[in-house]
Known about the structure:
Pfam families: MFS_1. InterPro entries: MFS, MFS_dom, MFS_trans_sf, Proton-linked_MCT. By secondary structure, the protein is an all-alpha fold. It has a single domain (9-189, 204-400, 407-419), classed as MFS general substrate transporter like domains (Growth Hormone, Chain: A, Up-down Bundle), CATH 1.20.1250. Helices cover 78% and strands 0% of the residues. The longest helix has 48 residues, at 307-354. The relative contact order is 0.16.
Amino acid sequence: MTAQESSRPWTAVLVSTFLLVVVGGSVSNTYGLFAVEWVETMNVSRGTILLAGVLATLVAGLHGVMVGRLLASGFQERAFLCLGAISGAVAFAILAWTSSLWAFYLAYIVAGSIAISFTSQMVGQSRAVRTFVASGLPVSIVSLGMKIGAAAMPAIAAVLWSAMDLHRALLVMACMMALCAPVAWFMVPPVHRSEPKGEDDAPTGPAVVVPAKQILGDPVFIGILFIAVGVMAISSAFFFNLPFLMGELGADPAWAAYILSIATIVSGVSTPFVGMATDRFDLRFLLMVPIVLVAIVIVSIAASPPLVVVAGTAFAMTFANAFLFPCFPAMLRSRFGNLLFSRAIGLSQPFFYSAGLGAFFAGALRDVLGSYSAAFQVLGVFVLLAAVGWIFIHRALRGAGPRWPGLEVGAGDPLVNSAR
């Protein structure tokens, strides 16, 4: 790590993770819980409500390209985190006061998308990759923030909603996010750019400019995107629609939040170990795990399962994410090195977040086909997409591959070493 960043190397990572939990978890992961109420109060279909969340994630992905480029050029992480927290608070404040569908869409697509992208895992992971030589563990800690947010914030939202009406619950959550802004600004150390002074120093910014189309056309980049989109599409379809599925099975939709919280906590324990494994083992082997697990999820839901099986598939889905989230940035760093990591992960964000369409597809297919069993049978195509992505990566790494600027081949990198 650089001398300027060595004083508090973990502070930025932990604060970024904290905002990912509170802001990202609130905006992204409580949506399915509140959607049940919004469908009734606004008298609209599931697809109409879920579309707002999907559009917000798609717009967040477009923001991610800008965020990645600015991070690579030296823009301060704490500024992104602060603005993201404020935007999340604004979004929930609007949701608390309006019953208008257009205002609902505006809150999520504009303010919500900024909150999602500016506090995303990309911000903390970019800092971790630049600061730590062996970044598997810190990157996985940031990834764990996604799982903690998915576990904690829906449960907190459910408790708040049970103790007060939805209006007050949303305002309380807006206040929680607003308080995160000063935490980010005053606790995240600023970045001071400099040239690395020793062999233990990681480069802090790109010394060369690589065209975006060159990164986008890389076969490993395409392959990891296929895997991420395939797994995340099924993940979003499952998580966002679980409350509706629970209701169809005769259970309280709020139980979905508790089931997901327990499953996420259990699987989250494995995330740091997966992160450390990315520094030691072939990433192709690790990436097989989420593909197999989402296949199990598809088969299980497509078979019209009882409630206990649905609860079990929640564990399979959260473990799939526990493997994917650390492996995704590890693959990008392995392929593109420290210098191009922020740029590559930024370019991946529109595709990564486009997986949110899985939630909309599942809801819309349920409305058309009449059951979630039939809907998930159709969504099985995303398992095939992920499998094709793995084949892309495996075939690409059978050769030496391109020499990207700043990539030190053979520096203890399991993916690079396995491809030699």
